């Protein structure tokens, strides 16, 4: 029996200032940071914008790791500061190291994520699912004991994440959603990297509509 729970922290920050494809002043984004655990220990999923807010949300709990869904700036820009403050390690899929380096230079994450890697926290499992498409190293984290999947920017309420970059792939993200996420029970809650939750049952019937619209 687990007493694990999922907590949502919304952080806000500005990204992309001065970068190609962004307004000169950058974009202000709200990000979901997910905490999985109980009163004693926790895993942090994504670390965007505000390390102090993440540290406050964790409080006195032991942090077993910071798991990153992908390498985009808004999901990782507070990771190093938060990891140092919380005395923990950072995990990222190696296919997104080129994006990590744009934000953090040559200060590498501590460990690599791999498909089906399993983490344990508060008596429940966190299962890594490699879901390329939004980025080559995008992953989701399935929590079968909690009937939930944390999808980063792979799947949102209303469809897949953006694939407008030259390293992204719309066919790949559809394949990832179909092969990794839509094999989960229909009752599974979907908690994305931005915005509100949805479910596998709600999104599953829309696959052909997404395929037809092409985004």
UniProtKB/TrEMBL annotation:
Keywords from the UniProt entry: Hydrolase
Top-rank taxon: Bacteria
Transmembrane segments: none
GO molecular function, one term: hydrolase activity
CDD domains with a match to the protein in the record: metallo-hydrolase-like_MBL-fold (cd06262)
Signal peptide start-end: none
Entries under InterPro entries matching the protein: MBL_Glyoxalase_II, Metallo-B-lactamas, RibonucZ/Hydroxyglut_hydro
Residue ranges constituting the Metallo-beta-lactamase domain according to the UniProt record: 30-194
PANTHER family: HYDROXYACYLGLUTATHIONE HYDROLASE GLOC, METALLO-BETA-LACTAMASE DOMAIN-CONTAINING PROTEIN
Name assigned to this protein: Glyoxylase-like metal-dependent hydrolase (Beta-lactamase superfamily II)
Biological source species: Leucobacter exalbidus
């Amino acid at each position: 029996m687990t007493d694990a729970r999922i907590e949502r922290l919304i952080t806000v920050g500005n990204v992309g200032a001065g970068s190609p494809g962004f307004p000169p002043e950058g974009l202000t984004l709200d990000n979901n940071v997910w905490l999985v655990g109980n009163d004693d220990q926790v895993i942090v999923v994504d670390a965007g914008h505000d390390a102090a807010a993440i540290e406050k949300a964790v409080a006195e709990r032991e942090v077993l790791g910071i798991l990153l869904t992908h390498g985009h700036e808004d999901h990782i820009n507070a990771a190093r500061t938060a990891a140092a403050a919380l005395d923990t390690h950072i995990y990222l899929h190696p296919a997104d190291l080129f994006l990590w380096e744009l934000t953090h230079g040559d200060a590498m994450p501590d460990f690599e994520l791999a498909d089906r890697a399993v983490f344990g926290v508060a008596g429940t499992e966190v299962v890594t699912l490699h879901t390329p498409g939004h980025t080559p190293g995008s992953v989701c984290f399935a929590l079968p004991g909690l009937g939930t999947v944390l999808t980063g920017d792979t799947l949102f309420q209303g469809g897949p994440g953006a694939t407008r970059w030259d390293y992204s792939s719309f066919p790949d993200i559809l394949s990832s959603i179909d092969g990794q996420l839509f094999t989960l029970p229909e009752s599974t809650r979907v908690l994305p990297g931005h915005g509100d939750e949805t479910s596998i049952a709600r999104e599953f019937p829309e696959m052909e509509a997404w395929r037809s619209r092409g985004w």
